[in-house]
Design goal:
Length: 626
Amino acid sequence: MMLLLLAALAVKAAVSQVTIYGDRARVVRASDVEVSGRTRVELPLLPDTVDAQSIRVEAEGAEVQKVDIQHVQPDEFPVGEARQMLDKLDSVDDKLRKLADDRSELQQHLSSLRRIVPAVPSESLRPRPKLNAGGWAAALSFAQDEEQSLQARIRDAGLQMADLQRERQAVAERARIIGGAGRRSGLRVSAQLEGKGAAHLTLTYLVAQARWTPQYDLQLQHDQKTVRVSFSGAASQTTGEDWDGASLTLSTAIPATARALPEIFTWKIGEKERFIPTPYRADRPRPPPPPPAPPPPIAAPASESDRLRQDLMARVQSPPPVAAPSAPQAEEKEEELSEVAVPPMPESVRSEALALPAPPAMAPPPPRAERKRAGKPTAPVAVTAMPPPKSVGVAQAPSEQVGIAPPPSWQRPYTPPDSPAALAGGYDLEFPSVRRETVRTGGGARRVLLFSESWPVTTERLIYPALAPEAYLVAQIKNPTLRTLPRGQAALAVGADPAGTATVPLVAPGEEFTLPLGIDRALRTFRNIAQVQSEHGLFSKDEVTRYAVTIEVANPYTVAIPLRVVDQLPLQGDKNIEVSLIEAKGAEREEGTGRLTWRVNAPASGKVKLAFVYELKRPKGYKVHQ
């Protein structure tokens, strides 16, 4: 009974660390609690997307004796706090209404006082009397003192109204949160601590519906010797909770989950004739017949929580009581009064219901697979009675073989091709964020910067003269860090000019990769082919065609630039055709593909000439095709 009498201390455990995986996240909440003896603390309500089995509570400076996890139904509503908010709003509104009425009366009194002026009685039959100004000074002094007193009282009333407006705004915001939060369900976690003094409480859990995707930004500097590599992750989540100012870590690992191993029971065959044994898993029963359609729901009467919620939202949306300006006051707008302006309240406050995904449907519990027979558990066997055959023959073998085989419950884990685990090639990589980030639930992807560094780069112009006359600017980049980088899309830029997009491959430490940076239209390429045909042989004539290919590249720049020119030699695809390379000075030949590659430097404001010669030999009259 003592445990039930312990009052729960509500703590605001803010999200401090988040590790985002491909399909889930590990969230760490932390809070400092003052513990005096045996203390029961209640942590913030967790959304339904949290894995209840992954919840862990730890404390430094105190001992965690017990942790209770309870699923909160969506119809639970803080009735006591709602009543307190309504009473507070009533009290503040009454004070505002009284101050507004008093201020209106003071303003009317001030307006009447300002209309007091000396007047001379006018009678047509009598001569105008002589005016005596002896009492004017006293009257004007009285009016001035009274006016200053009224202005001071109006100013004090304005100050009090401003304070009450701010107080009402805070109460209305709290009431909006209570009344407009929607019928939220989730997991309520409470822990019992034992100790004395300050304790640091940590709550850790796994939550679904969180993901991230690697992204790169590569900017070639103007000196073309360094490239700015910025690696970031597009993180998004629809978990039902916001991560405000948390230290993020983006991981390519797949969190381990506990799985039950299959269990083989004793398999006994009955005495029925002509059956086909069909084994199946004990924990995967045959699906039961669909249940009958439920009757239409009957509208239940409004509960007390519903009425309180409606009253709260109605009071929050209604404007605070203010006094309407009088007619003389509207006429005297131009006169300045030393009054304090009251901040206006918002016209309407909308309640934003927190849209949470429905919890995953739970599978029906498996049937009791163990049966006591001769003291040993026995697995059920599905037996199908066969009708007597019309003709005598050999029964066909069942489609599924009976015997001991690998567990049918095991399945190869499926990894989506666009998940971080697949893009990292199976490496478990972690990348902490540069700064604390805020990721809102359902707010779209947030670009989280992981690092931004300058790497050395080697640029060259890649030319395929047989396919295109343009020269492609490419960058040879080497990973100088000790980090392995996953594959991802990269936005390319040369200086301040965008150069398109490309895909960065999986890069190991010290590995080189090539990225295209666009077309260099200043370079001009020319390719010419000279063909000479002849016949050889005395008895069987062969036709021999010699091809002389000439490539010329003009460099308009005032500095020398490296070039990589790639051409191709045809390969023999028919036994009647012979292809032989006669000359290819300075070229690297790749066997199997016929690729010819020249790596040269084009002189400043000069030209580069390359050439290769090959022969094609086939029987006379033989038609050549490709």
